[in-house]
Design brief:
The protein is an all-beta fold. Helix content is about 0%, strand content about 55%. The strands form eight sheets. Strands 25-26-27-28-29-30 form a six-stranded antiparallel beta sheet, with no helix packed on it. Strands 1-2-3-4 form a four-stranded antiparallel beta sheet, with no helix packed on it.
Length: about 350
């Protein structure tokens, strides 16, 4: 089966469930669906589809019921910077599905035990946001009996879980990770890293995206103060300098073409697909932010270097369409691409006028 992954054999060994990626057909290419086929590869049927919509929706985990008549799965849906998750069941032979419950903390791990209990994983409300624990519910006729029970306590993210045949023992993997900034020295031909060391020493998520023009400091975002903010740290200093702090999430610091300013994306903490976001600029040495432009769903921005003055930015996908904009202070160039291979160029002036190029 082409484009298939994460296969799971039914309890009686007669069928195989697997994820298959939806290419085209009005859906984003990377949205996986649940399919079932006989164990010899015949009679392939799609049992859980990905709806065509502005949001990005996909299935992350699935498991067979003890009698092999149902498949439980976790569906995640992203709308810009917010997401929702739901635990759902499908009677795969009729492709009838229903939502058991919704919880944005649902992880991509589950296992349906032989005694009818269903184990799933929820993220904890911890400072790091990366701790999770396993919970169990009892299902009868697709209904939850009793109250969900937490069955593990600990730090780290549960990434895999599996049960013994009698359902009395569980084995699972916990993993912990954190992003830090490292710097290193390249060999003369640029093909080998001769030495490296950790630059950021705080226990926070630090993500580097640019250097200062003189290559003496690194620009990065960090959540060390509880939200994503912009920092600059010299390569010979142990502490970082806060460039900008505020109530909104500040992401992806990049240099302007002439290196005099730092561009960044500013997004409200609880942003939805229609929440306005913005690109701001601050002087490289610090100062008051300057509004560059506003739009909805800005996900990336980056600038070329002089003599070019081009700065493109991208918005969150809409259906099967990706849009990239180019700004240079005088006009915007809208590049609209879809997976059918069609491309449309629109010249949009800052006063709102537009023409097809």
């Amino acid at each position: 089966m082409d484009d298939g992954s994460r296969a799971s054999v039914s309890p009686d060994g007669s069928h195989i469930a697997f994820l298959r990626y939806a290419w085209g057909s009005g859906r984003l290419w990377f949205n996986p669906e649940v399919w079932v086929m006989r164990s010899d590869g015949t009679d392939r049927v799609r049992v859980v589809s990905t709806p065509a919509q502005d949001a990005v929706s996909w299935v992350e985990a699935f498991g067979w019921s003890p009698d092999g008549k149902q498949i439980a799965y976790v569906r995640k849906t992203w709308r810009y910077l917010t997401h929702s998750s739901s635990l759902e069941l499908t009677e795969w032979q009729s492709a009838r599905s229903q939502i058991i419950f919704s919880d944005s903390r649902l992880s991509s791990v589950l296992d349906w035990l032989s005694d009818g209990r269903l184990v799933y994983v929820l993220a904890e409300d911890s400072a790091s946001g990366r701790d999770s624990n396993a919970w169990v519910i009892t299902l009868r006729s697709s209904k939850i009996l009793g109250t969900p029970t937490r069955i593990t306590i600990g730090l780290g993210q549960i990434s895999t879980i599996t049960a013994s045949a009698d359902g009395k023992l569980l084995a699972f993997v916990r993993e912990s990770w954190q992003g830090h900034v490292y710097i290193g020295t390249l060999s003369g031909n640029g093909r080998q890293l001769l030495a490296s060391r950790r630059l950021t020493l705080e226990e926070s998520e630090d993500i580097p995206t640019s250097w200062t023009p003189d290559s003496k400091a690194v620009l990065f975002t960090s959540d060390r103060d509880g939200t994503s903010e912009i920092f600059k740290q010299a390569i010979d200093e142990p502490l970082a300098e806060s460039m900008l702090a505020g109530p909104d999430q500040m992401e992806l610091p990049r240099l302007s073409p002439d290196g005099s300013e730092i561009l960044y994306i500013s997004v409200p903490k609880r942003a939805g697909p229609d929440t306005p976001s913005a690109i701001f600029a601050i002087p490289i040495r610090g100062g008051a932010p300057r509004l560059v432009l506003r739009d909805t769903g800005i996900t990336n921005v980056q600038c070329a270097r002089l003599p070019s003055t081009t700065c493109p930015y991208r918005r969150t996908p809409k259906g099967n369409t990706q849009e990239t904009f180019r700004f240079d202070g005088k006009s915007l160039l809208v590049v609209s691409l879809n997976h059918a291979g069609e491309t449309t160029l629109l010249s949009v002036t800052l006063d709102g006028g537009a023409s097809v190029l």
